[in-house]
Structure formats: structure tokens, C-alpha cells
Amino acid sequence: xxDIPLIxxxxxxxxxxxxxxxxxxxxxxxxxVRRLADLLPDRQYVVNLxxxxxxxxVGLSAALLRGQVNLLPPNATADLLTRLNxxxxxxxxxxxxxxxxxxxxxxxxxxxxVSQATAAAVPQFPPAQVAAVLFTSGSTGQPxxxxxxxxxxxxxxxxxxxxxxxxxYRRMAVVGTVPQQHSYGLESTVLAMMxxxxxxxxxxxxxPSDICAELQALPRPRGLVTTPVHLRVLLAEASELPAxxxxxCATAPLSPQLAIEAEARFAAPxxxxxxxxxxxxxxxRRPAQGQEWHTLPGxxxxxxxxxxWARGGHVEREVLLADVxxxxxxxxxxxxxxxxxxINIAGKRTSLAHLNFHLNSIxxxxxxxxxxxxxxxGTVTRLMAFVVAPGLASETIMSALxxxxxxxxxPRPLCLVETLPxxxxxxxxxGAVDELVTxxxxxxx
Amino acid sequence: MNKPAMQEVPQGNTLTxxxxxxxxxxxxxxxxxxxxxxxxxxxxLFGEGMGxxxxxxxxxxLAISKAYGVKLRSDDENNREIFNSLRSLNQHIQQHRVK
Lengths: 445, 99
What we know:
heterodimer; A: alpha/beta; eleven-stranded mixed beta sheet; 11 helices; 29% helix; 29% strand; B: mainly alpha; 4 helices; globular; disordered N terminus
């Protein structure tokens, strides 16, 4: 197979990134990649911890030029770095600030002179070259590596561009609120930009005012790649939202109300991506227009007795998906939540995500989650639900739920709370949920 | 603008009236079990100390914006100091509040 270029769809002089409000031209980027590649130490693996998205992209590209593999851990805790040191001998860390990491070689991102834009050849890499290793937390607590070839990463980026119609937004500037070391951030804020001729915003604005200010400072067309948590807070806090042309959301399913509100207030289409670290992004949908997911080009799904599998396209090996999926055909499906969320009460089966979907579709419900309490005294365990719904009485929510779900799954009790203990990616960690259950039980008992 | 004419000078680890109000807002927003009056205004809000995380910060920022009209920004030069403790956060709010 032919080598695949590092970037494409950038005209000469096109903006590759916006950094500190300054445009960086594609020629400048390519020059910086070559200079950094000359400076990197001679090692096989690099942990790319650059928090600046542009520097991350330069680091990723320079490592590719040197044939080094980018390790992208979900966090940089001392524990995880120690683990990587054992599993990948001679690994070093690339990051902006020089920092003391015990027993870890740190290569600080060097200050490099900004060159005058000159024509530079775009590097090409073999599709089979291992470009990055992403990690999931294994069931035993040890990180499980998921190597990604350059070919697979690029095919994934191209599939996203085609599926979301990003061709129509050439040169769009894109702000991301997600880290580029995660699967979603890597695909949607780095690779899709590099392959689609889009301009990445180098920062990662956090507060709603920051996000609005950074968007406002960019030329149009401009887009926002974010998560349900950020989107909800953004809509709740900002009285005036900057005009945006494109919205993308992932990491946890978005409620239809939030999707519709976001589309209305931003006056832009909101797309949603579904995927996992193992397979990468798999499908997309526009939640304001329907709940069905459509697989990315080349990817298809099939089911057997073990569950639903993804294959084809950029998915290099068949991946068993950890979600309950209702296939309409091999390219269209409904998502009913994680397999681990399967609920069986009195012989009736459903999933927490399925129940959560119904709970969150009730008018006035801002956020809500069903929880299966841990009980082992032999009695029939009942579900609990935690609901954020200012102004709604729990009776109103219960009667709306009765219309939607089997009585066996009605929550006992339904607790109205101010917020749910969601983590950075919008998920509800089991530990935090258990803590909430214990706290409420203490209040009641 | 209903800034208090004279701000109390916070001392030690006793909550001032404004600090107690902010503590109550945080406890309610995050559904903490801690009693607002029991929060040490000099303890670190994040990491060790009260142990809040980045999603908590977003939720608190939203609550502060609604209650005081102060919109927090991460490019504020004093950002690290502002979030250092309940006391520093309250001082920032009292200086910038519009409600």
C-alpha cells in the first residue's frame, strides 16, 4: 500500500492552527515538525503529554518522522508512568514545562525559532507503521494497550470527515474542550483537522466564558468539539453564545433536549460520535434529528451470541463492543448502553442506559441516572434513580416514567438532587454513585 | 451594586458571613455532605483539602455566575490564587460581584 501523507487538503499558506490568537501557517508547522524531529532523543517510545494541541500535533508528527511510537495514556499519574516505564523500556516524555518525574526521562518541548514560510514537502508514512498506543483501564487496574497504525488513524479521520460532511467546512477553525491524548480528542481535534484541511485551536478552554471568548476570536467558519458536560454548562451559563457553524459531541449520550437546545441556540448542526478506544470511532448521528446511529464509511456491525462486533474500514481487527446494540441493519443501530449495565429484575431484562434515556427524555429533567444498589440479602433489589429537575415534583417524574418503562424498573426511591457526580468525561463512576447512595441512605435511615 | 460598604477582614479559620454564604452555595451545588459552617476557609478547594475535581469547578463556576454575576475565566492571571481556598475565591467574588 502506498505511503500516506501526514496532512492533506491544506493549500499553500493555509492556516494549520491558531495558537494564542495567532495563525500558524501549514509551512511553519511542517518546518517545526522537521526541527523537532532532529532534536528528539533516540528512543523507540515517547509519552506525548503536550497539553498545547498544536505542540501535541508537532510532537506526534516528529515522532512519526523518527519512527517513534506515541504513547497516549489517559492520565499522567505517577503510578501509570511507572507502569509505562516497565512496559516500554527507554520511554521518554515530551511536554512543555520541564518537570521532575521520578525515574522518567523528560524532554521539554524546545523553544524553536519561527521560520519564514517556505515550501516544504509533506512527509509520508507507511500505513502499517505503529503511530500511537492508546490505553484503557483493564479490569485488573493495569492499563491495556491498543496500538493504532498510521493507516488506521488516517482512515478513521477521513471516515469522520466524510460522515460528518466536513468537506463543506474547509478551513474551519475548531476549538476542542477534550484532551488530545484520548481517542475522541485525537480523532476529532487532531487527525480530522490534519486530514481535512481544518485549523486546530491549540488551547483547551475550560470555563464557559473561556470557550465563548476563544470561539469569538476565531474567524468563521468555526466549530466546537466538546462533551455533554461542557455543553450543558455552556448553555446554562452563557446568555449570549458566539455564532458557531459546527458542533460535535461525544463520550456519553446526549439527551435529545440538550441536543435540540444546543442546535437552536448556536444555530448550528450538532453531530454526535459513538466509539470506543479499542475500535476508535464507529458511528455518528445528529441527535436532534433522530436516535439512530449510522456507521462511519467502511465500518459495519454484526451480532452473534457474544454480542455486537465492529469490523471494516479503519477497524483493523474485529472488536466486540461493550454496549447493548439493537441492529436495524449492518450500518444502522440504536444504542442501549453498556453490557455491564444490563439489569435483570424479576426475570425482566433491560439496561441502565435504556432506562436513563427514558428518564432524561422527560420534559424538565436536566440530568438523571438509574442506579442498581449493591445488595446481597436475597431480596429483590430495586433500582434507585437520581434526578436533577428543578421545579419538578418527584410524583410528576414517576408518573411520566410509568408511561415509559416497565413497572419492575420504576425507581424506589427516586431522589431529587442538585447535580450528579459526573466525571470529566461525563460518565458516572461507580464509586461516586455508591457514595451518593450511601449518603442518601444515611439521610433517610 | 450592593457591595458591602465595609468588608469584614477575614482572620484565622472562622468563616465570615460572606464566606459562609459561598460555602452554602458550594455545598448545595455539589450536594456535599459537609456542613457549610464546618468548611475551613483556608483549606485548599481542590486536590487534597476539600478534594473537588474539574467537573466540580465547572458546576461551582455556573452557580457563582448565577448567584453573583461573576464569570470565572481561566486566563485570569490570578486564577491559581483565586481557586486556592474558599477565602480567596470569596475575595475574588466580592471584588467583582454585580449582584
